[in-house]
Design brief:
With about 60 residues, this protein is mainly α. It has four helices and no strands.
């Protein structure tokens, strides 16, 4: 559901911030969608957002599952 809302948000022109990306990457971790989580990590960096400890922790956890 979180990833669906994230997609809807972007479709309607809202610009996700660090906290929104973290929630989406965490959702990828929980749903074992590591490729999408890494894609979101790259996307947020390309938008000029600096990943934090939460971001990296979720991305690493997603890859290990």
């Amino acid at each position: 559901k979180a990833l669906e809302l994230f997609g809807d948000m972007k479709t309607h022109g809202a610009v996700p911030n660090l906290f929104i990306y973290n929630a989406a990457i965490t959702a990828c971790e929980k749903s074992r969608r590591w490729k999408q989580g890494l894609k979101l990590l790259r996307e947020m960096q390309s938008r000029g957002l600096e990943p934090d400890v939460v971001t990296y922790s979720a991305a690493i956890s997603a890859c290990e599952k």
